Amino acid sequence: MRRKIALLLCLVMLTGLFAGCTGTDTKTQGSSDDITIKFLHKWPNQKDNDYFVSAIAKFEEANPGVKVSMDSAGDEAMKDKIRVVMGTTEQPDVFFSWSGEFAKNFIREGNVLDLTPYLEADPEWRDSIMMAGLEPFMEDGKYYGIPYRINGKFFVYNKKIFEENNLSEPKTWSEFLSVLETIKGTGVAPIGLGNIYPWAACHYITGLNQKCVPEDVRHDDYIRETGEYTDPGYIKALEHFKELNDKGYFQEGVNSTEHNMALEMFYGEKVAMVYVELEEFGDFDEKFEGEWGFFPMPAIEDGAGNQNFLTGAPDGFMVSSRSANPDEAVAFLKFLTTLENSSEMVQTLGWPSPVEGAVNSENSPASLVAGLEAVSKAEGMALWLDTDIDIRISDVYLPALQELLNNDKTPEQIMKEVQEISERIKAE
Questions:
Q1: What does the H/E/C string look like for 101-164?
Q2: Residue 59 included in any domain
Q3: Boundaries of domain holding 71
């Protein structure tokens, strides 16, 4: 009898052990006939992840027989994870992607589903999304991704410091430099920059390239088959950025400072400005005790690019072309981007949504409403450089920006390296 009891206990323990090793997916148990949609996003922190857990539960309740298995990876880890997983047969049905070249790589490789038929079949859904969000996911007139967030880049500034020094928001680069020089004279670092990860410097160069290089030239250069990067505007962009550091307009040690540390400097009034994304505006409302304002990167007077563009981009989701359940995958994507759910996302997470009406005075602070209005009024978007060019060029370009700030490389040396890698890619 004791042997039978002992055996029974062992079986119970083994059952519990295997039950506890099923992973961290949010997939709920259902019948063997259930359809399972694999979903990969890039927000693993608890608050963001909890929002998606809740959204999935609502979707599954409204769609009996369809389950969603969720996975996530952080910002930097996602870049590697998604490239690896998309080269296997285990592709997620719905997966996060940045827009621009990052997304176009998957499109060229035939890894993503053409969503045009779904959007054309539901014009109400299509028309509910800002074109500024949809367009960066288009290729050859077809839609391959649905934007989930839309971002712009702005200088956030301490209004008290500006008022004490009779300063106003600069409209031109010359005015900008004058403002910075005045603030520097007060003993406060004008701009906080955390460039330990060089995406921060990359966001500056994104906007400066766009303002200094003719739009058609920059467009062709960012395409790997036609890129040359010989326009003098690229060197001018690097010179403008280097000047900010050389003149002491950034705090000391930018390459050893994290972005969050730069934000803390702003909150503590150690720096007068930071260059941030629209989605971060909620943090300033919450953490900064003083009044703050914002303005876009000022126009460069002799710049050859369109000065009315805004640095920023949408990011969102794509559907794998290998999905065994594309209709259900698109249905889940459509569910995430309804006005109701997008409004809840805005209210819960503070992210700017490209869904018309999702950001409003009832669910968002005035700063977010005003920022999104500035995005909608821009003549175009300069997409993040590191996701808008070939990854092999980005791997040369971005680390070189740290060397530029350390005075280890000149703008000319950097662009020569970029030109060389671009030529090798074209020769393949």
A1: HHHHHHHHCCCECCCHHHHHHCHHHHHCECHHHHHHHEECCEECCEEEEEEEEEEEEEHHHHHH
A2: yes
A3: 30-150+313-378
More confident site: 183 or 73: 183
Identify whether the C-beta of residue 121 lies closer than 8 Å to the C-beta of residue 87. Answer: no
* DSSP, res 38: E
pLDDT in tens, 366-402: 999 999 999 988 998 999 999 999 989 999 999 999 9
pLDDT confidence band for 293 (50 / 70 / 90):
very high
pLDDT in tens, 17-49: 333 333 334 444 455 578 999 999 999 999 999
**H or E, element range at 386:** helix 385-388
Q: Which residues of 239-259 are buried (b: 16+ CB within 10 A; e: fewer)?
A: bbbbebbeeebbbeebbebeb
Task: Answer yes or no: are the C-beta atoms of 364 and 142 closer than 8 Å.
Answer: no
3-state secondary structure of 406: coil
Question: Is the pTM here over 0.90, yes or no?
Answer: no
- My answer on whether 413 and 275 are in the same domain is yes
CA distances from 162 to 144, 157, 337, 394 (A): 44, 8, 39, 36
276 to each of 42, 168, 203, 297, how far by Cα in Å? 19, 19, 9, 11
Tokens of 262: 């730069």
Cross-strand partners of 377: none
Strand partners, 299: 172
Contacts (Cβ under 8 Å, ≥6 apart) of 417: 396, 400
From 378, 394, 419, the end of a domain falls on 378
- Residue 187 backbone phi and psi in degrees, to 5: 95, 0
Residues 146 and 163 in one domain: no
Q: Which residues contact 306 (CB under 8 A, 6 or more apart)?
A: 210, 211, 215, 379, 380
35-41 and 189-192 strand pairing: unpaired
H or E segment to which residue 311 belongs: strand 309-319
- Joined together, the tokens standing for residue 329 give 């995958």
